Amino acid sequence: MSGQTQRLNVVPTVTMLGVMKIRLTAATRGHALLKKKSDALTVQFRQILKRIVSTKESMGDIMRASSFALTEAKYAAGDSVRHFVLQSVRTASVRVRSRQENVAGVKLPKFEHFTDPSADPKSSSSSSDLTGLARGGQQIQACRAAHVKAIEVLVELASLQTSFLTLDEAIKSTNRRVNALENVVKPRIENTITYIKGELDELEREDFFRLKKIQGYKKREIERQMKSAREFAEEQCAEKLSLQRGISIGAAHNMLTVGGGKDDDIIF
């Protein structure tokens, strides 16, 4: 596209002008709504980005604390702590569930961690509480709490990053639609409306010129008819005068011309 923005190929009529105005109104309204949606998604995007940065900063400390807690548990309870833990756990008590959150028409996936009380409570709660009771049980419980906290942070970070990627794609798609409406659709419709108005004005000027020509033709026709009627009347007067005076028609015409057409003064 070089030079001006292209227009739609339409028939320049009054009906099409109304249709184009309606389309322009709809495109303007849609552009405003999409712009508001893009702004809302951008605000949410920046908030999620801040939360991701803060979560990643805290994740380093939490993962380091969980690693130190595991090392302390191994030091206190010995290498056999792994077998005690595996024997005491049958099913997972910390689980993850997903849901969707609607933000300006965009569904963002959310992951949440929760403790399942129905997951074999005898083996998961009482057995885990008694794991390593004879040797290093306190360190094992601290290690478990540290790793549960690490899992919570990882689940939150996964939820934030998934929402971050979904919002990024939604913002790009919305911005493409906003730019298309602003730079392509609306200018094309506006150029089409300008073209239709110009063509209608040209047709109106042509109709006005045609009417003027018709009026001029009718005026000339009326003048010609009046002139013919006047000439016919003069011819009748000349014949009458020639009969009354016994002169030729040419001499009668001359007498009428000299007398200004008042044959009564000439006759009497």
Automatic annotation (TrEMBL):
It holds the Pfam family ATP-synt_D. Belongs to the V-ATPase D subunit family. The keyword tRNA processing does not apply. PANTHER family: V-TYPE ATP SYNTHASE SUBUNIT D. Keywords: Ion transport, Transport. InterPro entries: V_ATPase_D. This is V-type proton ATPase subunit D. It comes from the Eukaryota. It comes from Iris pallida (Sweet iris). Residues 112-132 are annotated as: Disordered. GO terms for molecular function: proton-transporting ATPase activity, rotational mechanism.
